[in-house]
Design brief:
The structure holds 2 protein chains of 2 kinds.
Chain A (H helix, E strand, L loop, with lengths): L47 H4 L7 H23 L7 H13 L1 H34 L1 H16 L6 H8 L3 H25 L3 H9 L4 H39 L4 H10 L3 H29 L6
Helix pairs in contact in A: 3-11, 4-5, 4-7, 4-9, 4-10, 5-7, 7-9, 9-10, 9-11, 10-11
Chain B lengths: L1 H29 L6 H13 L2 H33 L1 H16 L6 H7 L4 H25 L3 H9 L4 H38 L4 H11 L3 H37 L1
Classes of the chains: A mainly alpha, B mainly alpha.
Membrane topology (chain A): Multi-pass membrane protein
Keywords (chain A): Cell membrane, Membrane, Transmembrane, Transmembrane helix, Transport
Protein name (chain A): NitT/TauT family transport system permease protein
């Protein structure tokens, strides 16, 4: 039961817990959680110097300096390429107030983010049902397993052209594509979670003559919740990629489409604000899920 | 359990037959929009025999492989170095995870405007989608070497170089394998994104052309082939991963 609890343990050098935030160690398409930690408390590789507890600058200062360094490198890189078509840090910062003041931007942002939110909810609801059934009923699992794993592995972006043939160049296509790309990780994770029930639970349930619905909703569903949360974190990232892909390909209005248009009309800085907003959305949504898991399911670790 | 195995394979076979039948019936009722199973297979044969599909797969495969190899060559050493020096870890960790969170697809228009749509630009997209899982797994691996192992190595007077060669790197291998598997998945997405949204070449070109011509048989055929390739790649890397996972458990147990 290691739903991506990665890198527990303390860094030997700073004594600072080094923990990858749950869910962040997952790409849009990774199929399997990152390796779970070994049983014994792992440690950072202590270098000779660190072992001597040399005084070192505080972490926030290091982080700040790295941030500045990244921005400087970005700016230098843009200068070296000598292209006026590249966003620059200062330009992006200057563009923020103007972009945030425009109504169009918020409309676009909501179009994209809203479709991701609705799509993930629809996909998750449907995925939960199929996942639970696949986890609990062998015949259902056998029947759907090859389709689910094939579709789960196939990059959803490749299905977008097909979807535009079937559903046209509309916002509804985006919603369907988003829901489908959220559906698959939820099915896979919920099926895993509702299948991997400790045997004792089922024994106890049988002893007390639990009904099928007790086992499904009282045990299997509950056992699947942390898996579901991991699945949702994966689903949100995948869904956003799909939403933007539909906007690019079908010209559906939204933040992805407006990024495309702005980069074409040499408003790179304005466009980059959109990238930042979408990134923050993904980070915030995943963080919210992690917080919810820690708050409501504290026994599943950090 | 032998009967159960037969039952399972029976249901697998049944599910495929049901798909083909449902597909065929649905296609009969929907005209041009949904090509039937047989039409799709015929189109697939056509695409293979006229050389379009092999050529597209070759050109997309080149982008995929170059991007993946670059990501491994850059990601693994960077991850080890990041994890090895606590100062560096503290400095870069936040940014590694932050950059990983950026949806690479939103960067494609910038790459298009800034660099163009040649081979390099496409490889860059693939690297951006593949490098982070590899880098992060290497970081996690090197960082989670049990102190016990290091203590023993130190006790026996191992030098810095021996520590790396005999403890840190072997310990990281299973993590790296998992990272590479995720990197392959990322690179697949990156390749499709690059082939669709920089300029459409290779597989992307086939898909876009099929989509604009409402050639659903062509789009289905190409999507099927991509799916088969994706499943095989992930299947093979899953097998490799499981072999190394055993190794990892052996080490930490």
């Amino acid at each position: 039961m290691t739903t991506r609890r990665t890198g527990t343990g303390e860094s030997a050098a700073g004594g600072r817990p080094v923990s990858a935030p749950a869910g962040q160690g997952s790409t849009a398409t990774e199929a399997v959680p990152l390796p779970g930690e070994p049983s014994s408390a792992p440690q950072a590789v202590p270098s000779g110097r660190a072992r001597r507890e040399r005084r070192r600058p505080p972490n926030w200062l290091l982080r700040l300096l790295t941030g500045v360094l990244i921005l400087v490198l970005w700016d230098l890189g843009a200068r070296m390429l000598e292209s006026p078509f590249i966003a620059r840090p200062l330009g992006v910062a200057q563009a923020v107030p103007e972009v945030f003041a425009s109504e169009r931007f918020w409309q676009d942002a909501w179009a994209t983010i809203g479709s991701v939110v609705y799509g993930v909810l629809i996909g998750a609801a449907a995925g939960l049902v199929l996942g639970l059934a696949m986890g609990r009923i062998k015949l259902v699992r056998w029947f759907f397993t090859s389709y689910v794993s094939a579709l789960y592995t196939l990059p959803m972006v490749a299905v977008v052209p097909l979807m535009t043939i079937w559903l046209g160049y509309t916002p509804e296509t985006r919603l369907v594509a988003v829901a489908l790309s959220a559906f698959l990780p939820i099915v896979v994770t919920t099926a895993d979670g509702s299948r991997a029930i400790p045997k004792e639970y089922l024994d106890v349930a049988r002893t007390f003559r639990a009904r099928v619905h007790n086992i499904w909703f009282g045990i299997a569903l509950r056992n699947a919740i942390p898996y579901l949360i991991a699945g949702l974190q994966l689903a949100i990232a995948r869904a956003l990629v799909t939403a933007v892909a539909v906007e690019f390909l079908a010209g559906v209005p939204g933040l992805g489409y407006s990024i495309l248009q702005q980069t074409r009309s040499f408003q790179q800085n304005e466009a980059f604000v959109g990238v930042i907003v979408l990134t923050l959305f993904v980070v915030a949504a995943r963080a919210l899920l992690t917080v919810a898991r820690r708050r409501f399911l504290p026994w599943y670790g950090r | 359990m032998a009967t159960e195995r037969w039952a399972r394979w029976g249901v697998y076979a049944l599910s495929l037959v049901v798909l083909a039948v449902v597909w065929q019936i649905a296609a009969a009722g929907s005209g041009l929009l949904l090509a039937s199973f047989t039409e799709t297979m015929a189109r697939l044969g056509e695409l293979i025999s006229n050389g379009e599909l092999p050529e597209a797969l070759l050109s997309s495969g080149r982008i995929f492989l170059t991007g993946l190899v670059l990501s491994i060559l850059l990601g693994l050493p960077l991850g080890l170095v990041f994890a090895r020096f606590p100062l560096v870890t503290a400095a870069v960790e936040t940014y590694v995870y932050g950059l990983y969170a950026i949806p690479v697809i939103t960067l494609v228009p910038f790459i298009l405007a800034g660099i163009g749509f040649d081979f390099r630009a496409k490889v860059l997209v693939v690297v951006l989608t593949a490098i982070f899982p590899i880098l992060i797994s290497a970081m996690e691996g090197a960082r989670s070497v049990p102190g016990r192992l290091l203590d023993v190595a130190h006790s026996y007077g191992s030098t810095e170089r021996q520590l790396w060669a005999d403890v840190v790197i072997p310990y990281t291998v299973p993590y790296a394998v998992t990272g590479i598997k995720q990197g392959i998945a990322g690179a697949l997405v990156g390749t499709i994104i690059a082939e669709l949204f920089l300029n459409a070449t290779g597989v992307g070109d086939l898909l876009i052309r099929a989509s604009t011509n409402f050639d659903s048989a062509g789009a289905l055929a190409v999507t099927l082939v991509i799916s088969v390739i994706a499943v095989s790649l992930m299947g093979v890397s899953g097998v490799v991963e499981r072999r190394f996972a055993g190794w990892r458990e052996g080490l930490s147990g």
